[in-house]
Amino acid sequence: MTEEQRTPHYLYRVVFxxxxxxxxxxxxxxxxxxxAERRLAAELGVALGTLRHATQLLREEGLVVTIPSKxxxxxxxxxxxx
Amino acid sequence: MTEEQRTPHYLYRVVFxxxxxxxxxxxxxxxxxxxAERRLAAELGVALGTLRHATQLLREEGLVVTIPSKxxxxxxxxxxxx
DNA sequence: AAATATTTGTACGTATGTATG
DNA sequence: GCATACATACGTACAAATATT
Lengths: 82, 82
What we know:
The structure is a homodimer.
Chain A: H1 11-24, H2 37-44, H3 48-60, E1 64-67, E2 71-74
Antiparallel strand pairs in A: 1-2
Chain A binds a DNA duplex through helix 2 and helix 3.
């Protein structure tokens, strides 16, 4: 066998891509709130820091917006793209 | 006493601003390597995550560049500005 | 070629702070 | 005052990449 293309699948990236796909497919509509981060982390079985790393990437891509002490919400499609 | 203007002085921000100042003043010249992050965190008496948060801000401002398994280095002034 | 040292990257779980309602 | 939710901070462990011996 030849060299495999090694693309490590870091947890924070798996979570990020999962949500990215669900948002871009429309499954998660604009203004939909994501579950609270601790709760979501618990559901997914990842640490808080890991989940926050993932949502940080979502914010950087413009997919979600986080409002302190309110929640994290799916953004309008027009607000997206880096 | 009247209301004080409360501006919280988060640790990661203190560290960030300390290095930002030292870089912009020229005390830390371009290509100077910063101490290894774990070592630096220990010296400053902060947690690794806190130091990494600070260096992440430095990277975002273009003040430093981090090369995995090599180190974090002060950038040329021309590469800066947000 | 292999082992070692150095350095950044990822991941964990918990505690406390801050802001809103 | 209380509940909820994001933000900061801690300390530790292991993984991955690079360079040196």
